[in-house]
Amino acid sequence: MPKYEIVVDNLNGTLWDLTDVTSEVTWKTSRIGKPSSLDLTFIRDDSYQANGFDVKNGDVIRVKVDGDGLFWGRIFTVERSRDAPVRILAYDQLRYLSESDTYVKKNIRADEVIRDQCQAVGISVGQLVNTGFVIPKVSEDGQKRLDIAFRALDTTLMGTGNLYVLYDDYGNVKLSHVRNMTIDLILGESSLVYDYKIKDSIDEDTYNQIKLVRDNKETGHRDAYLYKNSNAIDRWGRLQYYQKVDDGLNEEQIKGIALRLLQLKNREQRKFTLESLGYFGMRAGVKVQVTIDKVGVDSFFLVEECTHKLSGDDHTMSLDLVVFPDEYK
Predict the structure, then answer these.
(1) Are residues 258 and 277 in the same domain?
(2) Are residues 281 and 261 in the same domain?
(3) Ordered DSSP codes for 277-313
(4) Going by DSSP bridges, is the β-strand pair 209-215/222-228 parallel, antiparallel, or unpaired?
(5) Taking a C-beta distance cutoff of 8 angstroms, is the pair 246, 154 a contact?
(6) What is the pLDDT of residues 45-103, one digit of tens each?
(7) Domain of 261?
C-alpha cells in the first residue's frame, strides 16, 4: 500500500498534518472543462484543537503519495456539525479559470491562449507544449476562461488531429500531448478491474453529416460546406453536426476540418465505466489499454473522468472512458 500524506497550510506559517485523522478521501479529475477536486473528511482531534487547529476557506491543502505530489489546491468549502467529521472540499488551480471575461486575439496558438488565461488570474504555469497550429482569430465575450482554453484546443484538434491534455500537476498548469500521457498499464479482469459497464450509442456524439458554414464578407452571404457518409445515413438516418467556422479559414482548411469531424464522429460511441483497484498514476486525460476478452475488448481508451477513493487501507477508483480513435495523433 503506497504511503500518502495530507497537509494543510494555513498561510500563516503553520502546517497541519491530517494524514492520521483523515477517514475518507475522494480525488476526482476530469479531462474537459473542470478542475480536479479533493473531497475529504477528518475526525476532529482534541490534541489538534488544543493547539488552535483550524481549517479555513482559502487554505492550501496538498497530498503526496510516496513523496510525490498528487494534489495541490485550495479549500473552497468547510462543513462542520456537532458530532460528524469535518468535511473539506478543495480544487486545484484550474478552478480560478472559472471567471468570465472578454478575450480577442488573432493568429494565436492554443498554448498561447492558455498562458494568457493563466496569467490573467495569476496562477502558476508549468510546461505548455507548443501546439503549432495557428488559430486565425479567437473572439470570446463573457466566456469562462477555462472554456476559452478548451475551445482553442478543440480548434487545434480539428485543424491538426493532435489531441492535447490540460491539467494541473501539483500546483503547475501543464499542457501535454496525449502521446505523452499514455500509461504503461493494462486494465482488465485479470488486472485490477472487478466490475464494468459498456455502453454503445449513436444518441450523444454520433454524426454522419457535417455542415460547416462561413460568413463571406465579399458577398455578404453565408457559405455552406456539406460532407456526409451515405451508407451511415441509410443505416442510422441523418444525424447532422452543424458549426460556424472562422471566416479567416480557406476552403481547403474547412474541408480538412469537415473530413476530420466525419472521421471522428461517424461511428457508434463506445463508453466504458470501470470499477477497479486503485492506481495513483491514473487520472483523466491519460490513454490506457483495456483488455476484456469476454466482451471482445482489446484497445486503447481515453480516460474522461477518474475518481479515486481512499478509506483506511482501501484504495479503489472509478473510470469513465471512451474509445481512443485512430484518427487522433
Answers:
(1) no
(2) no
(3) E--TT--TT-EEEEEEGGGTEEEEEEEEEEEEEEETT
(4) antiparallel
(5) no
(6) 666 666 778 899 999 999 999 999 999 999 999 998 877 789 999 999 999 999 999 99
(7) 209-265
The Cα 105–Cα 121 span in angstroms is: 18
Alpha-carbon torsion angle 247, 163, 188, 38, nearest 10: -90
Inside any domain, residue 328: no
CATH number at residue 85: 2.30.300.10
- Give the integer Cα–Cα distance in Å for 90 and 63: 11
What's the one-letter identity of residue 119? Q
Total structural domains within the chain: 4
3-state secondary structure of 95: helix
Judge contact between 172 and 199, C-beta under 8 A. no
DSSP class of 85: P
Select from 139, 141, 144 the least CA-distant residue to 99.
144
Looking at the structure, do residues 25 and 123 belong to the same domain, yes or no?
no
CA dist 74 and 57 (Å) reads 7
183 assigned to some structural domain: no
d(CA 23, CA 157): 42
Contacting residues for 11 by C-beta, under 8 A, at least 6 apart: 58, 59, 60
DSSP characters over 10-29: -SSS-EEE-GGGEEEEEEEE
Q: Which three cell numbers stand for residue 85?
A: 467529521
Q: Indicate whether 127 and 141 sit together in one domain.
A: yes
pLDDT of residue 48: 63
Q: What distances in angstroms separate CA 134 from CA 137, 151, 166, one per listed residue?
A: 9, 13, 18
β pairing state of 209-215 and 240-244: parallel
The 10s digit of each residue's pLDDT in 152-184 is: 999 999 888 899 999 999 999 999 999 999 999
- The closest of 148, 37, 164 to 99, measured between CA atoms, is 148
For residues 275 and 187, give the distance between their C-alpha atoms in angstroms, rounded to a whole number.
10
Are 86 and 106 part of one and the same domain?
no
Overall pTM > 0.90:
yes
